[in-house]
Design a protein that fits this description.
Layout: H1 7-23, H2 34-90, H3 94-104, H4 110-117, H5 121-142, H6 145-151
Helix pairs in contact: 1-2, 2-5, 3-5, 4-5
Family: Belongs to the sigma-70 factor family. ECF subfamily.
InterPro entries: RNA_pol_sigma-70-like (IPR039425), RNA_pol_sigma-70_dom (IPR014284), RNA_pol_sigma70_r2 (IPR007627), RNA_pol_sigma70_r4_t2 (IPR013249), RNA_pol_sigma_r2 (IPR013325), RNA_pol_sigma_r3/r4-like (IPR013324), WH-like_DNA-bd_sf (IPR036388)
GO molecular function: DNA binding; sigma factor activity
């Protein structure tokens, strides 16, 4: 415990020492000072545990740095997609914009929208398809359409 300073690591070291003793049990008769031999194995296993812990800490730090970088990039890409979608929606003709918002923002079905706006169901479906096509076209032109699809499943 003086070396590893962690209960879990201490338990691991003790287990490894027992394994070493078991694997080398045939050599125990030739060991002159059993206490010193056990102490040496314990110290070596403790140092190995510290090295493993240090390597794990380094890997974890690298992963956290990558995650932070990815999160930042994703946030920027998401903001850009939202901006482009907003611009595409705002550039739609008024009726398509209304149909799109009723469907995508308020969650209404095309039948409900048709009833509310007193339009045919077919017209509403076509207008919604045209609105989505315009948004898709705008995002494809900017190269962010695939990200849009992944984020809006």
């Amino acid at each position: 415990m003086k070396i590893v300073k962690d209960e879990f690591a201490r338990q691991e070291v003790v287990q490894e020492v027992f394994i070493k003793v078991w694997l080398h049990r045939d050599k125990l008769e030739s060991v002159e000072n059993l206490g010193a031999w056990l102490r040496k194995i314990t110290i070596n296993q403790s140092l190995l545990a510290l090295q493993r812990q240090q390597a794990n800490d380094k890997r974890l730090e690298t992963i956290q740095l990558r995650q932070t970088s990815t999160d930042h990039t994703s946030t920027l890409e998401l903001k850009e997609i939202r901006r482009l979608v907003h611009e595409a929606i705002e550039s739609l003709p008024l009726q398509r914009k209304t149909i799109y918002r009723l469907n995508r923002v308020e969650g209404k079905t095309t039948r409900e929208i048709a009833e509310q706006l007193q339009l045919s169901h077919g017209y509403v479906r076509n207008a919604l398809s045209a609105a989505l096509a315009a948004i898709r076209e705008r995002l494809t032109a900017s190269g962010l359409f695939i990200l849009f699809l992944l984020l809006h499943r």
